[in-house]
Amino acid sequence: MTTIARIEKRFGIQAPVENIWAVIEELDGWDRWNPVETGLSGTIAFGGDIRLTETIPGLAPRAAEARVSDWQPNSQLVWTEKRGLWFQSMRYFEIEELEPGSSIVSNGYIFTGLRGEMYFEKHKKTLRTAVETVAEAWRSAVQG
After folding, report:
1. What is the distance between the alpha carbons of residues 130 and 90, in angstroms, rounded to a whole number?
2. Separation CA 88–CA 83 (nearest Å)
3. Beta strands, E only, 14-73
4. In degrees to the nearest 10, what's the CA dihedral of 83, 88, 91, 96?
5. DSSP states of 68-132
6. CB burial class (10 A; 0-12, 13-18, 19+) of residue 19?
7. DSSP character at residue 48
8. C-alpha to C-alpha distance for 17 and 73, rounded to whole angstroms
9. Which class in CATH covers the domain with range 21-143?
10. What CA–CA distance (Å, rounded) separates 143 from 20?
11. Helix axis angle, 114-143 to 17-25, nearest 10°
12. What is the pLDDT of residues 71-117, one digit of tens each?
């Protein structure tokens, strides 16, 4: 897969990685903290299906069916979605422990394919706001 466009928000968080991961692994709890991806259901496992509603401010809500392409407890969750001819997206949440109780976390999108690049260019500012919103919500959910 050739990377066409990527947008990400990274930030530091003072909490054990287990607490950070607990927010991510509880799919049915995402509605409590994440205003962008809601109604999550499915299984976190290689090849597991994830269903959700993507509600990015400024864009129409969109039902999505994705597949877990990578995951590691206390470290990352990655899902991919084929959005049509020449358009695939990847959504990721990563945790990098710097030392016990201190981590760098990130969330972002990667778009591939000609239509993925066009979508990214058209909605770059909206997507930037979405990853920033999710980052702040994730921090609040962990730190209270």
Report:
1. 14
2. 5
3. 37-42, 49-54, 62-72
4. 170
5. EEEEETTTEEEEEEEEETTEEEEEEEEEEEEETTEEEEEEEEEEESHHHHHHHHHHHHHHHHHHH
6. middle
7. -
8. 9
9. alpha beta
10. 9
11. 120
12. 999 999 999 999 988 899 999 999 999 999 999 999 999 999 989 99
Amino acid identity of 70? D
Neighbours of 119 (CB within 10 A): 19
Query: How far is Cα 77 from Cα 91, in angstroms, rounded to an integer?
Result: 8
> In 3D, which of 1, 4, 2, 9 has the Cα closest to residue 116?
4
Residues 6+ apart with CB under 8 A from 57: 126, 129, 130, 133
User: Residue 131: what pLDDT?
Assistant: 97
Record the pTM. 0.94
Q: How many CB atoms lie within 10 A of CB 25?
A: 13
Torsion (CA) 30, 36, 100, 46 in degrees, nearest 10 = 70
